[in-house]
From TrEMBL:
Name of this chain's protein: Uncharacterized protein
Domain CASTOR ACT: 60-120
Domain A9CJY8-like N-terminal: 16-50
SUPFAM superfamilies the UniProt entry points to: ACT-like
Lineage: Bacteria, Bacillati, Chloroflexota, Anaerolineae, Anaerolineales
Coiled coil spans: none
InterPro entries assigned to the protein according to its UniProt record, in alphabetical order: A9CJY8-like_N, ACT-like_dom_sf, CASTOR_ACT_dom, CASTOR_mTORC1, UCP008459
Signal peptide: none
UniProt xrefs under Pfam families: A9CJY8-like_N, ACT_7
Length: 127
């Protein structure tokens, strides 16, 4: 089992958008202090600050991000497990993003307080 982790709540609300796989990466997706862009054969997925996305794009809004304090070695196993287990037990849906140094757990803004409580109950520190 991994020791307790420290998570920081990012201040901005985020939106998760889906575009067709072949579409170019739009300029609006690369604005703001936080964005993540993933292209697969099936889709172009964009996470960015809420309000930067134009109307008419398929999006899920009102997400908040919890950033794990990293960096973590790639050899470490199960970094997210105890956090995701606690959130699943509390019946909180997540959207995860991993970067080279750390991981982000996105939860719906309406579930943020409940998520923080569940994570603290599991022994994690949320700031």
């Amino acid at each position: 089992m991994n020791p307790s982790q420290v998570l920081n709540i990012l201040p901005q609300r985020l939106v998760v958008c889906r575009l067709e796989a072949g579409e170019p990466i739009p300029d609006w997706a690369q604005n703001g202090s936080f964005f993540s862009i993933t292209r697969t054969a099936e889709e172009l997925s964009i996470v960015c600050e809420e309000g930067l996305n134009p109307p008419g794009i398929l999006c899920e809004s009102s997400w908040r991000a919890l950033m794990l304090e990293g960096p973590f070695d790639f050899d470490q196993i199960g970094i997210l497990k105890s956090m995701l287990d606690a959130l699943a037990e509390a019946r909180i849906s997540i959207f995860a993003i991993s970067t080279f140094d750390t991981d982000y757990i996105l939860v719906r803004a309406a579930d943020l307080e409940k998520a923080v409580s569940a994570l603290r109950l599991a022994g994690h520190r949320v700031c």
